[in-house]
Amino acid sequence: MDPRSDHPVSEDELHALLDGQLQAGQRAALEARLARDPAASATLQAWQRQQAALRALHQAVLQEPLPASLLAAAGQAAQARQQLQQWWRWGGLAAGLALAFGLGWLTHGASGPGATLARAQPVREFVHQAALAHAVYAPEVRHPVEVGSAQEEHLVQWLSKRLGRPLKVPKLAEQGFELVGGRLLPGDDGARAQFMYQDARGVRITLYLGSAPTGVHADKAGTEFRYAGDGPVPGFYWVDGGFAYALSGTLTRPQLLQLAQAVYHQLEP
Amino acid sequence: MDRQALLEQIPGLRRYARALTGDAWTADDLVQDTLERACAKWRLWRVGSDLRAWLFTVMHNLHVSQLRQTARQGELARPLELGELAQEPAAPAAPVDGSIDLQRCLLRLPEEQRVALLLVTLEDLSYAEVARITGVPVGTVMSRLSRARSRLQELMEATAAPARADGQQTPALRRLK
What ipTM did this prediction achieve? Predict the structure, then answer.
């Protein structure tokens, strides 16, 4: 559009100006032409009044508190969305079923793009399963563990036998966490164990461990701590001496790292 | 997407629905239906895309299908008097309150013109966004908008004129709140 052009202002131009659809340059040019076009200016002013009246019409609704029925509907919609997101993130419907029916489903049932990606990265899969196991059992009120801390010796013997190597249960009392107990879980490369701890506020963390996934070389992967923050629960994971570990909990990253280091130092042969 | 992000959209949806339908109850029902539909249709919303535009699309489609349903029911009930429907909102002009006049005149606009005018005016949406929401080309949005503005102007002037002539006030209308 030529800013010096003098042809009459068209109706389309007036609408575009009124509705803020023009770039700054176009806008300035049009306003300059409008100044020489009283008829178009008058039309624009009438529409501006109409626009203001329409915006004022139900303005009060914007400030009104929302009716309970709408609040409830919004809550439900947000929840449905979150569930859907979780399903997508964890490999579609199959992961949703695994959450609902327990971990046994996971190893056979996982499908969809998320799972394919995870399968290409065995460690990610391990971390993913650790996070799911945390999500499933940490909120459990009555049966968070199979064997409680009162039978710690039995717990250690049992899990050592099932995982095929002597286990130690790290003590995290110094960090404020007491052992709740543990459970046996299925994994891609044999049995896995989960130890659960709880602090005075009732916050739970889980240590998930098992044979390092096939294809992961312990010395190559090293004992580097890695952070996984994109699952249902954040955590640190590492591979050491043919075993993989994941420490998960709804804590800050520095808190989790400190706990992971404490675990690592105690388990170091 | 969290609950808060969704809650922030509701006042805008309510205001638009109220101007669109002219009735507070009908409007909130439409918003409620929209949220319920969203529940079932979330798969169609891409994370990170414009939530507001999507909700308005859901609402628009619902409203259109509800109107069709009402029209069908109306046809069945009174096959010979359809012509009246178009005249219906044109109650005797009574300038009790400017906003009631404006709402009444709005309701006399053809549906698609009212939709275009309200989406652009109340929600500051671009013509392209309104085109996507209503599923028509941008040119159609612009011509609807243009007709809506002119027609609303005429209706408002016609409403104001007789009042000045007879200076009479009809009994106050029940105000829908």
Answer: 0.79
| Interval A187-223: pLDDT, tens | 877 889 999 999 988 889 999 999 887 766 544 445 6
Question: Residues A126, A210: contact at Cβ < 8 Å?
Answer: yes
**Residues in chain B, total:** 177
Tell me what pLDDT residue B163 has.
52
What are the strands of the beta sheet with A178-187, ordered from one edge?
A147-148, A178-187, A190-198, A204-211, A243-249, A235-240, A226-228
Q: How many CB atoms lie within 10 A of CB B26?
A: 16
- Give the side-chain half-sphere CA count within 13 A for A73: 19
Read off the tokens for A254.
Answer: 């520095």
**Distances from the Cα of A51 to the Cαs of A35, A54, B97, in angstroms?**
21, 5, 17
CATH number at residue B104: 1.10.10.10
- How many structural domains does chain B have? 2
Q: Would you state the pLDDT for residue B11?
A: 95
Task: Work out the percent of chain B whose per-residue pLDDT is above 70.
Answer: 75
Q: Domains in chain A, please, with CATH?
A: 11-63 (no CATH), 69-267 (3.30.200.100)
Nearest C-alpha of chain A: how many angstroms from B54?
14
Could B42 and A54 be called an inter-chain contact, meaning their C-beta atoms sit closer than 8 Å? no
What is the domain range of residue B66? 1-76
In chain B, what residues touch A70 (CB-CB under 8 Å)? 10, 14, 28, 31-32, 35
Which residues does chain A have within 8 Å of residue B126's beta carbon, measured at their own beta carbons? 21
Which residues lie closer than 8 Å to A112 by C-beta, 6 or more apart? Answer: A91, A92, A93, A94, A95
Among the listed residues A103, A124, A79, the one whose alpha carbon sits nearest the alpha carbon of residue A95: A103
Supply the CATH number for residue B35's domain.
1.10.1740.10
Identify whether B175 is part of a domain: no
From the list A189, A205, A185, the residue with the least C-alpha distance to A197 is A205
Q: CB–CB of A175/A262 below 8 Å?
A: yes
Chain centroid to Cα A120, Å, comes to 21
Dmax (CA) for chain B in angstroms is 58
pLDDT in tens, B72-129: 776 555 444 444 444 444 444 443 467 888 999 999 999 999 999 999 999 989 999 9
Please list every residue in chain B whose beta carbon sits closer than 8 Å to the beta carbon of residue A58: 15, 18-19
